[in-house]
């Protein structure tokens, strides 16, 4: 585990006004990678030993944590995060928690993957955040229950050793690459609250599952597709375009700022592996007065290959799913969509199947990572 910038020390008490005024954050290099614990990919917090003040499920909300200073319930202040009760010692002569006392939550990742970085966000937890956190990981196939995961035979590997964190802050930690994992155990020492958990890394799809599907979306996040670069991320991230399902609102897609030059915007993707693409979907759902006017699609095979246009510049309609069957299957490892002149799309789907060479590399990597 290689530690990046983190925060220690107390946060200032809430003094009114902007609830984020004292919030401390930083840019972490790993946050460009997919959040393996994204609810939209199927992640969930399946168990916790205590959630007296605030529910464990709040940990994986995709939105930033909110704070309402006037919101109280029968148990006290209602926080937008996971918060446990205060721990106590064994008796009057030992009122403080023992050093090993801690609270825990079990997190099922939305997709198996290799973890590269973790953000433990304590936003708005100023005097009630944990003193330290630690994170462990396990690889358990199928759909294990909490009891299955807590069984003595399950091997847990430490991703983040017990480490001090700060209140009302995004505490980020880089993780050295390891095996692929399916579940995390998040521990807070001895108690307290965490607003959000983000687990950034690389998806490691099951090649057996993909082979059984035959034809699937080669660029989907859940299947191992990635966004490598984009010309503009002003209003929303380009990774939205390869999230599961259809867009549900305007900011659930990719939208660029208005261009005032003669250029155009674009996204470059990496496919799960070398594959043959046979069909394309370009969706502009919920983008009505800001949809891209036209789009074209180009592919290349290999990191140094030349770009070849496979879908010429085509008119797009607002709030519409456009489908294209390619005249012949196209071999590729990377794809680029160009939109003209600006605007946005909500989703891109590229349907096909890995080549024999691509499937072999995918299977070899899965075995190498412990799959």
List the helices and strands and how they pair.
Blueprint: E1 34-35, E2 44-48, E3 72-73, E4 76-77, E5 82-83, E6 103-121, E7 132-138, H1 146-149, E8 157-164, E9 170-174, E10 181-189, E11 193-194, E12 196-203, H2 207-213, E13 216-217, E14 226-230, E15 254-255, E16 265-283, E17 294-300, E18 308-315, E19 321-340, E20 344-345, E21 347-354, H3 356-368
Antiparallel strand pairs: 1-12, 2-6, 3-4, 5-11, 6-9, 6-10, 6-12, 7-8, 7-10, 13-21, 14-16, 15-20, 16-19, 16-21, 17-18, 17-19
Main sheet, how many strands, which sense, barrel? 8 strands, antiparallel
Q: Helix amount, in percent?
A: under 10%
Q: Overall pLDDT, averaged?
A: 94
Tally of contiguous helical segments = 3
Strand fraction equals 35-45%
Q: How many strands appear in the DSSP assignment?
A: 21
Report low-confidence residues grouped into runs of 5 or more: none
Distance between the termini: 21 Å
Structural class: mainly beta
Task: Specify Rg, calculated over alpha carbons.
Answer: 23 Å
Approximate shape:
globular
Order of helices and strands: EEEEEEEHEEEEEHEEEEEEEEEH
Describe it.
The chain starts with 33 loop residues before the first strand and ends with a helix. The strands form 5 sheets. Strands 1, 2, 6, 7, 8, 9, 10 and 12 form an 8-stranded antiparallel β-sheet that branches. Strands 13, 14, 16, 17, 18, 19 and 21 form a 7-stranded antiparallel β-sheet that branches. Strands 3-4 form a two-stranded antiparallel ribbon. By secondary structure, the protein is mainly beta. Helices cover 6% and strands 39% of the residues.
């Amino acid at each position: 585990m290689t530690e990046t910038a983190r925060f220690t020390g107390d946060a200032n008490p809430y003094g009114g006004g902007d609830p984020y005024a004292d919030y401390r954050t930083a840019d972490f290099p790993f946050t460009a990678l997919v959040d393996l614990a994204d609810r939209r990919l199927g992640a969930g917090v399946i168990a916790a030993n205590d959630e007296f003040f605030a529910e464990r499920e709040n940990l994986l909300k995709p939105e930033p944590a909110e704070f309402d200073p006037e919101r109280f319930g029968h148990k006290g202040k209602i926080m937008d995060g996971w918060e446990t009760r205060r721990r106590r010692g064994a008796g009057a002569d030992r009122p403080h928690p023992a050093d090993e006392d801690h609270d825990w939550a079990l997190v099922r990742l939305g997709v198996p993957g290799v973890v590269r970085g973790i953000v433990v966000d304590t936003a708005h937890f100023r005097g009630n955040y944990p003193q330290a956190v630690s994170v462990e990981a396990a690889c358990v196939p199928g759909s294990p229950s909490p009891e299955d995961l807590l069984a003595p035979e399950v091997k847990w590997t430490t991703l983040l050793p017990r480490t001090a964190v700060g209140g009302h802050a995004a505490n980020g930690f880089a993780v050295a690459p390891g095996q692929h994992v399916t579940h995390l155990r998040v521990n807070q020492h001895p108690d307290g609250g965490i607003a959000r958990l983000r687990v950034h890394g690389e998806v490691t799809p099951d090649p057996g599952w993909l082979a059984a599907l035959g034809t699937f979306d080669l660029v989907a996040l859940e299947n191992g597709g990635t966004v490598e670069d984009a010309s503009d991320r002003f209003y929303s991230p380009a990774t939205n375009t390869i999230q599961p399902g259809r867009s549900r609102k305007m900011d659930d897609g990719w939208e660029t700022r208005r261009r005032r030059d003669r250029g155009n915007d674009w996204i470059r993707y990496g496919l799960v592996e070398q594959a043959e693409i046979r069909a394309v979907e370009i969706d502009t759902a919920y983008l009505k007065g800001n949809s891209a006017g036209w789009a074209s699609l180009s592919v290349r095979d290999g990191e140094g290959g030349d770009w070849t246009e496979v879908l010429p510049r085509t008119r797009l309609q607002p709030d519409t799913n456009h489908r294209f069957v390619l005249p012949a299957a196209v071999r590729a490892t990377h794809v680029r969509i160009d939109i003209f002149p600006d605007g946005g799309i909500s989703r891109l789907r590229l349907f096909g199947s890995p080549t024999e060479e691509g499937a072999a590399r995918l299977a070899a990597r899965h075995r190498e990572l412990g799959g």
